[in-house]
Specification:
By secondary structure, the chain is an alpha+beta fold. The chain contains eight helices and five strands; from the N terminus they run αβαααααααββββ. Strands 1-5-4-3-2 form a five-stranded antiparallel β-sheet, with helices on one face. Keywords: Membrane, Transmembrane, Transmembrane helix.
Amino acid sequence: MTKFSFLGAIILSLGLILLTMPDLADARRMGGGGSFGSKPSYSKSYQKPAAPTSTPSQQAAPGAAPMGGRGMFGGMLGGMLMGGLLGSLFFGGAFSGIGFMDILLIGGGLFLLMRFLRSRQPAAQTAGGPSQTHDMNRGAWDNLRTAQNHTSTSTPEYPAGFDAREFLDGAKAAYTRLQAAWDARDLDDLRQFTSTEVFAEIQSQAEADPNPGKTEILFLEASLLEVKAVGNQTIATVLFDTMLREDSTSAPAEQVREAWHFSRYETGGAKHWVVEGIQQLEK
């Protein structure tokens, strides 16, 4: 192998190592994966609640296949190829007698294969995605103002007049809308539905990363963890169990579990719900 072929093979090897590494996307979802909010306790991870009774099929994590597909093929093929390249370069083994053109052909083939596998990952958002449901979400969340004299049909631990199903529908609508607003860096929209402290943190993150993003929500489930009255406020904590991509062009899907705290004033102050805290679920 000539000096230039050897140098070219090393450069190509380094390129393939970078290619098979997990993508380090700069784009992040709203909140950046941190814990913060209007109360000091929100700056810590949320203690994992007791696991609810459910069937094994309900506990299975949806979207597991898309998460593992790229890592399996990328890691396996990349490892095989890199093992052969390094063996040929330093020990004369694996792809014995391999030439520089062979390396280029193999590297190009792997690149095309990985591009093909990546392109087959589901790119379309679910029906509840931000771009298709913005108007619907606005109506659902704006209408989430259950009258206090409404006859309660919820479980006894909820305050009188609190409709849990209606609230969760509105909370899911708010989640998709706020993610879309964050992607667009629409601070005016974010300000409407966040407390002063939460908005200040989001605004700081937007200043640090002003470039629009693309959060792709593949699956979204919400469950109500707690509803309580604190003074003249009602605070509801929702666990969002989500499968999403924080950079839909390349990042693999990942499961995100966060506790969002919504609050509203029953007398005085804003009568609509706002996000007053976001906590990552304690692992």
